[in-house]
Design goal:
Distance between the termini: 58 Å
Strand content: 15-25%
Number of helices: 8
């Protein structure tokens, strides 16, 4: 059997990319190409290296787990959600393998033994089509069914002064935060996003927890911006205040609008899948 290194690399890199992308969409997690592409490439390099006779140990289950862990860390970082994304990645990989086996049995492609291992000779494009089908199912079907009880996560860009932050916002019908005078709804963003928008202020969760004392300091530091305090109530909190400022919010279609953004000292998501809350 002749093995073409470039084809093995390209096939495995493409399959890993689709599975990683599908896992991210299924979990509603960010999927930046600058992270997914290197992670997929590492998977392609591993697949090529595992075929080298002198590196046969790479085919062991332990080394496969190490390779998968490296890909996941490159793709999603060392965060709490990475474990959940890893489980989704393995589930999609298992679904992909099952579909390939089903196709091989249905089309009677036969069985090939290579180095004591069983392989089904499925074409390059056949494997890519099956992987694409797994990705589309994860992206278009399951992600919509399981994404926070039907609530939608939307990508936005928030601009404040000369700085901006790309975020993912959850449309939450339970978020009713608004300006008590005008009734204008407010976008609630987490402390990390606030720190990106106001880098010179060195914002922390502790500072945002005392917005009344923070407001005069920010007003002196950013005289062109108009900060205000918004009253709120939440589960476990009878009443409180959030620091807010008027920002420019750009949606995925490129449409920009002015909106209030309130800065929460506590995370707005349970696993970092989104960084903001919008109303219905």
């Amino acid at each position: 059997m002749t093995v073409y290194v470039e084809r093995v690399f390209a096939l495995n890199a493409l399959l890993n990319f689709l599975l990683l992308l599908g896992s991210a969409h299924l979990a509603g997690a960010p999927a930046p190409m600058r992270r997914l592409l290197p992670a997929a490439a590492v998977g392609g390099v591993y697949a090529v290296a595992a075929l080298v006779p002198a590196l046969g140990f790479l085919q062991t289950a332990g080394m496969q787990a190490v390779a998968a862990a490296v890909m996941l860390l490159l793709a999603f970082g060392a965060e709490k959600r990475t474990l959940r994304l890893g489980l989704l990645f393995l589930a999609l990989a298992a679904a992909f393998a099952g579909l390939v086996l089903l196709c091989a049995q249905a089309f009677r492609t036969g069985l090939v033994l290579v180095g004591g291992s069983a392989y089904y000779p499925v074409s390059f494009f056949g494997l890519v089509l099956v992987a694409a089908a797994v990705y589309l199912v994860a992206r278009l079907v399951f992600a919509r069914l399981f994404q926070h009880g039907g609530r939608q996560i939307v990508p936005l860009t928030v601009r404040l002064g000369a700085f901006e932050a790309p975020i993912r916002a959850l449309r939450d019908t339970g978020n009713t935060l608004c300006d008590p005078i005008t009734g204008e709804a407010a976008l609630v963003v987490d402390a990390q996003t606030a720190a990106q928008l106001l880098p010179q202020a060195a914002l922390t969760a502790a500072k945002l927890s005392a917005p009344a004392s923070l407001l005069p300091e920010l007003a002196r530091q950013y005289p062109a911006l108009r900060f205000r305090l918004l009253p709120y109530s939440a589960v476990g909190t009878s009443a409180g205040l959030l620091l807010a400022a008027r920002c420019e919010v750009v949606d995925q279609s490129g449409r920009a609008r002015r909106a209030l953004a309130a800065f929460s000292p506590t995370p707005v998501s349970d696993g970092g899948n989104y960084q903001a809350l919008t109303g219905a």
